[in-house]
Amino acid sequence: xxxKSVTQRWIAIIGAFLLLLLGLAGLKxxxxxxxxxxxxxxxxFVASDTDAFDPGLKVGERFPLIEARLNQTIVNSIDPLIxxxxxxxxxxxxxxx
Length: 97
Prior knowledge:
37% helix, mainly alpha, two-stranded antiparallel ribbon
């Protein structure tokens, strides 16, 4: 398949040049993968959370009491909601609208 456009030729030339540079640097196989991963993930995570946003419950903290309706009765415990087939409880935190 012939390279038709000038852009395709330049991309091929630059790609070949980069491969040559990596080869000259002695990077092969897993070393190239490791180097690329390091470049892509550098400074990806912060050491600590320093902003003012409070996401709510801390790890290990008890979930607050819930309030639900079951046949027009207000329920503050999940026990009456479980029934004979169990219960799926989903807690979703949304953004501040």
